[in-house]
Amino acid sequence: MMTPTHTDPLPRFPFDTETALEPPPEWAEFREKCPIAHVALASGDQATLITRYDDVKTVLSDPRFTRPTPADNAARVADTESGGVFNSEMATVLPQHGEAHLTWRRTLGKWFTAKRMNALRPGMAAMAEQLVDDLVAKGAPGDLKAGVAFPLPVWVICDMLGVPDADRDRFAHWSDVMLSMTRYTQAEFDAAQLEFGQYMGGLIAGKRAEPGEDILSALLPEEWSDAMLIATGIGLLIAGHETTANMIAKMVAMLLADRSRWEALLADPSLVRTAVEESLRLDANAGVGMARYLHEDFEVGGTVLPAGTTAMCSMAAANRDERAFGNAAGMDLGRSPNPHLAFGAGAHACLGQPLARTELQVVLEVLLRKLPSLELAVPADELRRVEGLAVGGLRELPVRW
After folding, report:
1. What are 200-211's pLDDT values in tens digits?
2. Is residue 7 part of a domain?
3. Residue 169 vs residues 33, 119, 198, 241, 354: alpha-carbon distances, Å
4. Can you give the pTM of this predicted structure?
5. Any idea what the CATH number is for the domain that residue 389 is in?
């Protein structure tokens, strides 16, 4: 590992990019020359950046290392972060590692099986069609993110959790505040967390009185504390819509940036599943990646990381590693197998990945069927990134048809 001297400023991570859909050149440079590297986070704190596929997968999969907790002296992602989900009460209430974490995941995992996702597909498709119709009715050009990508996952996770439709906009705001690293003050974060918790507490109380056919009602017999039920509900609401909403917009943008890709899908819609996976793999705007706190010395990539290290695992950089993927920088709509790390790996791999995959597939199928002439309304290099979110996204996706 390159060990910088005290006179060298550390590279700042995350790296800046010229455009919203292209990766920063540093990813390839670090993978080749310095796959285990010291970097400075926005806070000024030092972390170790890991960029190669095998190394990232090794660290994420090792049960000894978990998400940093408030008790760890871990590097902060940003000094102006208002707390963010990483430092929220939710992160302290939910079990983060060991048997308790596995039990929590297993209990929730029953709601994210392939069988349940297949049962949800027709409803998702009907909702996507309604959103597309509404977008078309307003006339071109339109914002596909605001019109389709954002509302669909919100509707789906509301439905799964038994949240009334009328409350969607409120929790979308709370979620945005809690996922922000820099855009809100500590007071605004605290207010959002308090309001979200109070809302979720009221929702759960209502379900105790009158259970429904939803996840929160089904969790009541588990005898979890109210704090754990509230934290679980908030966690699922945030994770269940923000990341997928952003990914829908990014996927469509990638497929339209080179319209031969869209044409290939129109010619062969059976490519939808593999195209979704390839979009996930090639996402250059995925956010900061996964932080892991090392409680003991650990060797990875031929380098010993000392205890107390905060390792930033860049899944997006790893997903472009030529050692793991042939023509890694190219978009192969039929790539199979495609063992990308977009959903992480190991005990903390994304619990809702079957839901995200299903939503991405359904939206793409509906758009290809209803709007075959879809195209970007601005050049791809003019698309604008969302700044200051823990997950990466586009501010809007202007399209016409």
Report:
1. 999 999 999 999
2. no
3. 46, 26, 16, 12, 24
4. 0.91
5. 1.10.630.10
